[in-house]
Amino acid sequence: MKTNPGRFFEDYRLGEVIAHAVPRTLSGGERALYHALYPARHAVYSSDPFAQSCGLREAPMDDLLAFHTVFGKTVPDISLNAVANLGYAEGRWLQPVFAGDTLRAESTVIGLKENSSGTSGVVWVRTRGFNQDDEPVLEYVRWVMVRKGRPDAPAPAAVVPQLAPVVVPEALVMPRRLDFTRYDFALAGERHRWGDYAVGERIDHVDGVTVEEAEHMLATRLWQNTAKVHFDATAREDGRRLIYGGHVISLARALSFNGLANAQMVVALNAGAHANPCYAGDTVRAWSEVLERAETSAPGVGALRLRLVATRGAAFELRGADGKYLPEVLLDLDYWALIPL
Amino acid sequence: MKTNPGRFFEDYRLGEVIAHAVPRTLSGGERALYHALYPARHAVYSSDPFAQSCGLREAPMDDLLAFHTVFGKTVPDISLNAVANLGYAEGRWLQPVFAGDTLRAESTVIGLKENSSGTSGVVWVRTRGFNQDDEPVLEYVRWVMVRKGRPDAPAPAAVVPQLAPVVVPEALVMPRRLDFTRYDFALAGERHRWGDYAVGERIDHVDGVTVEEAEHMLATRLWQNTAKVHFDATAREDGRRLIYGGHVISLARALSFNGLANAQMVVALNAGAHANPCYAGDTVRAWSEVLERAETSAPGVGALRLRLVATRGAAFELRGADGKYLPEVLLDLDYWALIPL
Amino acid sequence: MKTNPGRFFEDYRLGEVIAHAVPRTLSGGERALYHALYPARHAVYSSDPFAQSCGLREAPMDDLLAFHTVFGKTVPDISLNAVANLGYAEGRWLQPVFAGDTLRAESTVIGLKENSSGTSGVVWVRTRGFNQDDEPVLEYVRWVMVRKGRPDAPAPAAVVPQLAPVVVPEALVMPRRLDFTRYDFALAGERHRWGDYAVGERIDHVDGVTVEEAEHMLATRLWQNTAKVHFDATAREDGRRLIYGGHVISLARALSFNGLANAQMVVALNAGAHANPCYAGDTVRAWSEVLERAETSAPGVGALRLRLVATRGAAFELRGADGKYLPEVLLDLDYWALIPL
After folding, report:
1. How far is B283 from chain C (nearest CA, A)?
2. What is the nearest CA distance from C188 to chain A, expressed in angstroms?
3. Correct CATH for C191-341 of 3.30.930.10, 3.40.120.10, 3.10.129.10, 3.20.20.70
4. How high is the pLDDT of residue B74?
5. What 8-state DSSP symbol labels residue A200?
6. d(Cα C40, Cα C47) in Å, to the nearest integer?
7. What CATH number does domain C1-26+61-151 carry, 3.10.129.10, 3.40.50.11270, 3.65.10.10, 3.40.50.300?
8. Are C27 and A23 in contact (CB < 8 Å)?
9. Is the pLDDT of residue B98 over 90?
10. Other C-beta atoms within 10 Å of B280: how many?
11. Which B residues 299-338 touch C at CB under 8 Å?
């Protein structure tokens, strides 16, 4: 058979390194589409002179654009037969991606555990994205539940990796030459700086976006993500196309500009859950909670650890009395962002 | 509160200069999206060699792309709480915008008048767009009706600015080195030149475009316009998303290629009314009327003052017996374009 | 009348050369949109370093992107009053198109035959696309049925051109310096090479894409194709917008990555039929059949002649007992692609 049926649980080996196909050169075209697809307004990614005033060579690609590009490459090898995307950990952005850069991706299998049902198992991979100079640009761990292809395939020895519950501030990698000491708050859109955010503070980002089928498919294709549930209305029994979870991440992060305009760069992904599926017609809203504050080694640069929640309901909803995510909650993301002191 | 609630009528002061946030670097990506979003075919904006044969460095960004980019920046400060966008005047394009340019915007409050109801008022601003060298690229006046935040806020002294009913031909700014003496009419798509258009002549642009939600939202986001009525289906009582008026301007202008292919560059916006709201599902058509002709200082370049009307009905409809715009009329725009002699 | 009513059958003269309007400069923006509109993953078009490892200067524009751009230019002169697009032949890509290139098009009328009804006729044109250096980049013959404008216009002498049923392998033009001897199959996404494909072999490309109105209109506008049936829901009696046939070609070709990932470059179009109209809501699938294999003069480069069929039904459907295309079949295309030996 010439076509790729995707890997099944029994096809993964612990320690195996999977080189993902189809490297991708990014340009101003991808950047413009990112602005058309998401209400993204963070100034570092919007303006070359603003980025230069922060010590960067020019405006980089949005950190999530780099993430989606790397993630998309992994789909044919990791999640084509996935039943569920279970979590993220230890995500770090290692250097900015600029127009003209070419990204490729590679994943190492770091954990395997068959489910008690014997019909599926959990696969943990650490994925790294590299640029054309083979420098790493980002890395993250994700784990997915994958169907078995042959029910009688023997279960591998269970190995569950020890993952850091959060990237510690000391492990955050500062973009080279990043310097917020001459940061222009008026041009950036808000006056709130690192010291203005208190741990425990919650911010309702107010705005909402009603999502269309054409939009999420344009986005997901742009990242060369091939999972058929996003594109083929006949793929699922209910006839609905599932929106790529990363589309919801980017929508929520872009909405968070309103209240966190200066939380410019995403440098770590501590954890993330796609709490409920998102469909076209949903109106996505977002709220944030400040989880932690840290200093960094870059001049004028502080770090905020933020919970970013996307919901199709009201702000500050999260879990019900049973401790489970409420059905209105779409995303619960834990990340570090860089913000001027 | 960390989020931007927008300004209310009482928050504006006469003479105040508002620097709008989030500068934007434009590239070939924005140009390509403009061609995907609108049936734009004017050769100066489509082809570098054609633009060079007209004396320009390369194909500039469509003048309306520059306008939307500048306009989008003003929304969070000017029209977030606007009840209505009342008019435009004294708009002039001052130099072309090229790929790689970074635009920012600033507005001066030039008029204030509280409505007799005491619940809202009209704010007049003169907005200027600048490039990365702080050179002005365009300017225009617009006035909007803005809600009051506190009903008891005292009314300011009423100041209504004197605005020119039309930009006089002598005030039109010619793009540097523009020269239509070697203009290639075959490549441009039509043979009609300045002398072929008579004052009073009306042109039915024939074609129609049925608008989709995904399209107007992609466009409006691309200009970083944050007004929630365009994106959030729950923001208005009727559950319909209002299409950004500038989207209708660009649709109508692009449709006007068919009959006005040589009216290449937009250099002034004399007046404009968004006569009725436009919604997804509407099929937008356009017609033009020649209002005035003028010579210019640039070699081979004439100017046409044109009325551009967008409608979801038949051509040449405008006003009913009561003098009001017919419900099918979406836009009534008065502008100057440059065309070969 | 200032607007273009399109040409009617009696307006064409045998041997006439029609220079099409509105040259177009392409950039990374068009490339990014191509990736957003189609699930395109062929590595030569996705990655500059990959293309360079194959001897090319950088990643070219997808061959179909170049085709659509040239095709779009011809629409106002050739197919505005077309009743049907009847066929393609003798299509050849003559050199790659890169970001920054400007394309223009010109067509020669090579055949004319009035239909027996006397109300329409068939027009054959050979279209050539040129870059900014006046070098040809592609050429093809297509024939369309065009309405007569005046029923009493005299019938021209019938001339039906002799067209090659297939571009012979010797006539395929290799991109300059193309070399697949250092081809990286892992990065390209599949291990199958020229020798792995047998004549008569059929491949089900498995995936499907449900098409939205916004998507096909964005695509068709991007190619500056002005045929109103694609954009105006009121143009046809059934109120449905017809999807541009080239959109289906690009969808099917992109889907064929899964099973033909190494059939990188399209170098000839032997024949093509748009078997049935495609509408928004259709879920497009694709299958291929290997028709012929040939060697080429370029190092490490073989050629496969492929039938590419798009369908909204099951794989391997084509014709009914009556020899006619089944109603589920959308496209039957016969082309040559280059693949590593």
Report:
1. 7
2. 5
3. 3.10.129.10
4. 97
5. T
6. 12
7. 3.10.129.10
8. no
9. yes
10. 18
11. none
Of B28, B50, B186, which has the smallest distance from its Cβ to C28's Cβ?
A: B28
The verdict on a CB contact (< 8 Å) between B213 and A213 is no
In order, the DSSP letters of B3-69 are S-----GGG--TT-EEEPS--EE--HHHHHHHHHHS----HHHH-HHHHHHTT-SSPPPPHHHHHHH
Of the candidates A37, A187, A209, the beta carbon closest to that of B231 is on A209
Name the CATH superfamily for B171-341.
Hotdog Thioesterase (3.10.129.10)
Is residue A161 packed enough to be buried (19+ CB in 10 Å), middle (13-18) or exposed (0-12)?
middle
Specify burial of residue B298 (Cβ count, 10 A radius: 0-12, 13-18, 19+): buried
- Compute CA distances B226 → A43, B275, B286, whole Å: 15, 22, 27
Residue of A nearest to B102 (CA): A47
pLDDT digits (tens, 9 = 90+) for C221-240: 999 999 989 999 999 989 99
Sort out which chain C residues have CB atoms less than 8 A from A231's CB and list them. Answer: 39, 207-210
Rounded to whole angstroms, the Cα distance separating B304 from B292 reads: 6
**Which of 3.30.160.620, 3.40.190.80, 3.40.50.720, 3.10.129.10 would CATH assign to domain B1-26+61-163?**
3.10.129.10
From chain A, pick out residues whose CB is under 8 angstroms from the CB of C260: 2
Q: Do C215 and A218 make contact, defined as CB atoms within 8 angstroms?
A: yes
pLDDT confidence of residue B82: 85
Check if CATH label 3.10.129.10 holds for domain A174-341. Answer: yes
Residues of C in contact with B61 (CB under 8 A): none
User: Which chains neighbour B (Cβ–Cβ under 8 Å, 3 or more pairs)?
Assistant: A, C
Provide the chain B residues 187-216 that lie in CB contact (below 8 A) with chain C: 187-190, 192, 196, 203-210, 212-215
Report CB contact under 8 Å: C23, B189.
no
Structure tokens at A221: 């294709």
Say if the Cβ atoms of B203 and C3 lie within 8 Å. yes
Which element (helix H / strand E) includes A68?
helix A63-78
> Does pLDDT of A83 surpass 90?
no
Predicted local distance difference test score (pLDDT) of residue B4: 86
DSSP 8-state secondary structure symbol assigned to residue C223: T
- Long-range Cβ contacts of A123-126 (<8 Å, 24+ apart): A123/A9, A123/A12, A123/A78, A124/A160, A124/A161, A125/A18, A125/A74, A125/A78, A126/A90
Tell me the pLDDT tens digit for each residue of C57-112: 999 999 999 999 999 999 999 988 888 889 999 999 999 999 999 999 999 999 99
| Cα B245 to Cα A303: distance, rounded to the nearest angstrom | 40
| Contact yes or no for C210 and A224 at CB 8 A | no
CA–CA separation, A229 vs A337, rounded Å?
A: 31
A:45-64 residues touching chain B, CB 8 A cutoff: 46-50, 59
Work out the angle at residue A83's Cα, subtended by the Cα atoms of residues C284 and A231, and round it to the nearest 5 degrees.
Answer: 20
Is the reported ipTM for this assembly greater than 0.95? yes
To test the contact with chain A by mutation, choose from C56, C61, C212 the residue with the greatest count of A C-beta atoms within 10 A, namely: C212
The partner residue sitting opposite B29, judged by closest CB among C32, C228, C235, is C32
Alpha-carbon distance of C35 to A36, in angstroms, equals 15
Chains A, B: CB contacts under 8 A, how many? 131
Nearest Cα to Cα of residue C95 among C139, C38, C31: C139
Given a cut of 90, is residue A82 above it in pLDDT? no
Residue B194, phi then psi, degrees to nearest 5 = -45, -50
Question: In chain B, which residue's Cα lies nearest the Cα of C30?
Answer: B32
